[in-house]
Design a protein that fits this description.
The chain is built from 5 helices and 14 strands. It has helices spanning 17-20, 65-73, 86-91, 102-106, 172-175, and strands at 24-25, 27-32, 38-43, 46-51, 54-61, 75-79, 110-112, 119-121, 126-139, 145-160, 165-166, 169-170, 178-180, 186-188. The strands form 4 sheets. It has a 7-stranded antiparallel β-sheet with strand order 3-2-6-9-10-5-4, with helices on one face. A 3-stranded antiparallel β-sheet has the order 1-13-14, with no helix packed on it. Strands 7-8 form a two-stranded antiparallel sheet. It is globular, with a radius of gyration of 19 Å. The N and C termini lie far apart (54 Å). 29% of the residues are buried.
Length: 207
C-alpha cells in the first residue's frame, strides 16, 4: 500500500505513522514553574541528538506545561522510564490544570537537581539534568509554523542508580527501559544483545 500524507487517506483504523517510527524512548520531563510548582510529564517524541556536546530533545504538541516551564526557566530534567516505573509514568500523563503536581499524583519523590533548578524523579534509575539551548516551532515544507515545539537541552549533569551498573557499564538489562510504540502500545527491551560494526576490508597490496 501507499498513501500521501497530505490527504492521509491510509484506509486503516488508526494513523500508522508513530507505529512505524518505533520504538522511541520516553521523555519523562521534570520542570519547575516560576510560581514554584512542580511538573512531570511523559513525551513520546524524545531522543538524544548529539554526544559532543550531550544534547537531548523533546517535542511538545501544543504549548504544554513542560514547554512553558522550560522556556521560562531555561532548565529541565529527563528521567529514565524503567519497567518498575511504568504505572507511575502513566499516572503522570493525566491532564490536570497548570500548577498541579504530577509527582504527588503519581506517588513519586521529587528531588531538586544539583546543577539545575528543576525536579527529578528520585526513584528513576538515571536522570539527565539539562539546560535549554534552543526552542524551535517546527515548520511545514511550505514554511508555515505548526503547533509542535522542539526543546533542545544540553546535559550538564547525570545521575545513575549504582544498582544498574555492572562491569563498568550502565546495564540496560538491569535498568529495563520501557519504550513508546504507536497507538497505546509500549514495549520493554528484552533480550539485550551486542552487535559490532563490520571491519572495513583490507586494501589490496599496492606494490
Amino acid at each position: 500500500m501507499f498513501y500521501d500524507t497530505a490527504s492521509n487517506r491510509h484506509g486503516l483504523a488508526h494513523d500508522p505513522f508513530k507505529a512505524i517510527v518505533a520504538p522511541r524512548p520516553i521523555g519523562w520531563i521534570g520542570t519547575k514553574g516560576r510560581d514554584g510548582s512542580y511538573n512531570l510529564s511523559p513525551y513520546s517524541f524524545f531522543n538524544a541528538v548529539s554526544d559532543r556536546p550531550k544534547i537531548v530533545m523533546f517535542s511538545s504538541s501544543g504549548r504544554k506545561d513542560s514547554l512553558r516551564n522550560a522556556q521560562e526557566t531555561g532548565v529541565f530534567t529527563a528521567n529514565f522510564v524503567s519497567a518498575d516505573l511504568l504505572q507511575p509514568m502513566n499516572a503522570s500523563s493525566v491532564a490536570v490544570p497548570y500548577g498541579a503536581d504530577e509527582f504527588s499524583i503519581a506517588g513519586l519523590t521529587p528531588v531538586l537537581g544539583k546543577l539545575v533548578d528543576a525536579p527529578y524523579v528520585g526513584e528513576a534509575h538515571a536522570v539527565l539534568e539539562c539546560r535549554v539551548t534552543e526552542i524551535h516551532t517546527l515548520k511545514t515544507i511550505e514554511g508555515e509554523g505548526s503547533d509542535s515545539h522542539a526543546v533542545f537541552g544540553q546535559v550538564v549533569g547525570i545521575h545513575i542508580d549504582e544498582r544498574v551498573i555492572r562491569d563498568g557499564r550502565f546495564d540496560v538489562g538491569l535498568a529495563r527501559p520501557v519504550t513508546r510504540l504507536g497507538y497505546m502500545d509500549y514495549a520493554e527491551i528484552q533480550p539485550v544483545f551486542e552487535l559490532f560494526r563490520p571491519q572495513a576490508p583490507a586494501k589490496p597490496d599496492q606494490r
